[in-house]
Amino acid sequence: MRAWAQSITAALLVVLVATLATVSLTDGSGDGPDSVTMVQGTRSPAVRSSDRPNIVFVLTDDMRDDDLAAMPITRRLIADQGMEFTDAISPHPLCCPARAELSTGQYAQNNGVQHNRGVHGGFQALDPTEEASTWFRDAGYRTGFVGKFLNGYGPHDVRPSGWTRWDALTRGVYDYTDFSMTGDGDPVRYTDSYITSVVEDRANADVRDFARSGDPFVVYAWHLAPHYRITPEGGRSLPPPMPQDRGLYRDARPTSFDAPSFNEADVSDQPPYLRNLPLADTGEVQAENSARLEALQAVDRAVGSLVRTLDEEGVLDDTYIVFSSDNGYSLGEHRYVGKDVLTDEAMQVPLLVRGPGIAPGSTSDLPVTLVDVPATLAALAGVSPQWQVDGASLEPTLHGRTQPFRDTTLVQTGRTLGDGWSHRGVRTDRYLYGTDGVGGFLYDHATDPDEMVNLIDDPRYAAVRDALELRRSELVDCAGWTCNQAFGPVPDTLPTDPLLERRRGGAQRPPS
């Protein structure tokens, strides 16, 4: 995970102080180690008809993992009270394919969603009957969805069958203030509301109603921020913050500015999508970073509001709360601004989980992905997936047990036409490799953590490249357990390098 920002602005302190006026942690002196003390109101414990835990899943859109530094409420209430996965990635770093993975527990070769649009993408490419909410519904859970679903989902599209309540964005999805939602069967047009606040209010309403029913529940609150704004007319601009957050991060320095890969001087060896790009405009990157962080402040408060609601209803201690993003985002690394590329910045996402049995303040460096989330939620709830999933459950790690884990992860991007694929490759804890069938990339993170030297044609790495290509060819058609194999060490046939020797600790073989 990237290093945290080196300084906290005075505005951030203002946000934190304002937050603590409404939500404060007891540091273990209250009802339990994770308790939240409410300044106003009292707990009204629900009558539980089952000992099964609840699940709340908060998702952001295009959030970098290091953006968490600007979300003190989320860090304090979720990360500090649960587990942070420090090497979590979106293995298909684009909105719709990532959300399809989260909805099915499958990679795109199995769920059919390879892009945001076109014949290989969008909601139209997903079978709405294969949506993981059905696992929970059929096991007696109440289920509620609020927010952004898959790209292309419209007001006349079929409602996924597993949701007790369904309130998805349909029109003006990226507009923030002029949008429509399904309204659980009663469509609503919003023209003077802020999308984050609407998602917050509707998710809290679902939690209250479900908690008071006594049944276990699953609620997804999938936010829009910090995605850039797209108006219904197709215009694109910076994400607008709520009025009280405007200007809070005007002077915040983007962490990307400190990366050696920012505005990389020579990108001629990079794959075609990074080659010959103009230098990123530092002023534009600064402005976008500021707007993104300001837009996330409303999400941060919404997380606090959700935790407060769970506590008021007496179900906080029985609830797993998951926080993540559909993909990361590049802010000028390799001159690139955006996503849908197989680089560290585009793939790395935050992944936080708190809940029963999870040690507060714990971390894990397992190389996890978004594909693992549905399998994990099913295991935590004790329900059985109704089809073969490609991810691995993280439940053992969350509860402090050691678990075997894959050593190679499939990563890929798609196209709208052709066979629907762009670059497909693999990632180990040392290497990132991929190809489009003609050219490709190979980075050695042991000597080049910023992915500035493409070694795809370096003869010294021939054995490494061949081994990774074998793994790639095995995984591009994987399904189920075959997506989670441990292949063993990558051949170590490289010439001696002083830096590498220091990292090896002498004769010790580096991890593959």
TrEMBL record:
<protein>
    <submittedName>
        <fullName>Sulfatase</fullName>
        <ecNumber>3.1.6.-</ecNumber>
    </submittedName>
</protein>
<dbReference type="InterPro" id="IPR000917">
    <property type="entry name" value="Sulfatase_N"/>
</dbReference>
<keyword id="KW-0378">Hydrolase</keyword>
<keyword id="KW-0732">Signal</keyword>
<comment type="similarity">
    <text>Belongs to the sulfatase family.</text>
</comment>
<dbReference type="GO" id="GO:0016787">
    <property type="term" value="F:hydrolase activity"/>
</dbReference>
<dbReference type="InterPro" id="IPR017850">
    <property type="entry name" value="Alkaline_phosphatase_core_sf"/>
</dbReference>
<dbReference type="Pfam" id="PF00884">
    <property type="entry name" value="Sulfatase"/>
</dbReference>
<feature type="domain" description="Sulfatase N-terminal">
    <location>
        <begin position="53"/>
        <end position="383"/>
    </location>
</feature>
<dbReference type="InterPro" id="IPR024607">
    <property type="entry name" value="Sulfatase_CS"/>
</dbReference>
<feature type="region of interest" description="Disordered">
    <location>
        <begin position="29"/>
        <end position="48"/>
    </location>
</feature>
<feature type="region of interest" description="Disordered">
    <location>
        <begin position="490"/>
        <end position="512"/>
    </location>
</feature>
<feature type="signal peptide">
    <location>
        <begin position="1"/>
        <end position="26"/>
    </location>
</feature>
<keyword id="KW-0325">Glycoprotein</keyword>
